[in-house]
Each structure stands twice: as structure tokens, then as C-alpha cells.
Amino acid sequence: MRAAVARWFDNAWLTLAVEVALGAIFVVAAIPKIADPPAFAHMIYNYRMLPGAAVNGLALWLPWVELLTGAALIAGVWRRASAAIVAALLVLFIAAIAFNLGRGHAVDCGCFDVRSVGKSREALLRDMWWVLARDVGMLLMAAISLAASFREPRRRWPLARMRKLPAPASPGTA
Known about the structure:
Helix 2 (12-35) crosses helix 6 and helix 3 (37-46) packs across helix 4. The two termini are 16 Å apart. This protein has one domain. The protein is globular and about 50 Å long. By secondary structure, it is an all-alpha fold. The chain is built from seven helices and no strands.
């Protein structure tokens, strides 16, 4: 059983799919934040975790880090660094949500939409649990990518990796 699970996680196609999906999630999440930095700054401020002076700077650079790391995962360049940065960001996001859940402070995460939708406190707290679960799932995806980056030799060109992928199994064969 353990060997079957290890083989499944060692699958090059799974790794590629995880990296493209995770990269796409981060690119999509970055776009509204880049388009409206003041609204994103307001979302960060609502967490009540950072000094006011740090909020604006974070609202300006964090979406670009998300965009660049997501694009790098999709393109297959700087895989180890991109996966490590994404994992670190997810740990920070999980900690921020968990901290606010722990103190009963309801916040809209600001993950994919930076506009406040006027939800009730109870609805926001319920959503925060789902955001926490989603972020833990994405952290597992980042761990798969990071582990694969250590297993595979570094290649100069990302497309070299594509040529080395085994053909996917056709349905009914396995």
C-alpha cells in the first residue's frame, strides 16, 4: 500500500498537473489584487495583524509575488524556488486565518476578490473555515511540487522535462 502511494505521488504527470493548477490559482488570485491595491490594502488591514505602515507595502508587492511564482510554476521555471515561496505564503495565509478564527475576528480573506460583499459575521467565520481547508489542500499541492523538485535533476530548460514524461496510461490499462 505504502509503495503504491509513493509511486502515485512520484508520477510526473501528477506533478505537472499540480504545478499548473497551483500556478493558475495563484495567477488568478493575483489579478484583482494588482488591479485594485487600495481595496486589497483594506482587506489586509481588516486582519488587524500588521502595523498600518506595513499594510500598503504588502498590498503592493504581495500580488506581484503571487503572480510571478504562479507563472513560474505554470512555465516550469524555478520550480523549487517557486514551490517554496508558494508554500511559505500558504503557511502565512493559514496562520493569519487561524489566528483570526482563534480570536473570533471575522474577516473576508481577500483571496480572489478584493471587494467586501457585506456578509454577516457568522457567514464570514464559516467561510474562513473553508478558506483554511482550501489553503491546507493547496499547501499539500505545494509540498508535492517541492518534493518532486528535489527528486528530479535540475534542467536548464523547462521543456526538457516535457520530453522526459512517460506517455499517460490509456483508460482501461494500469
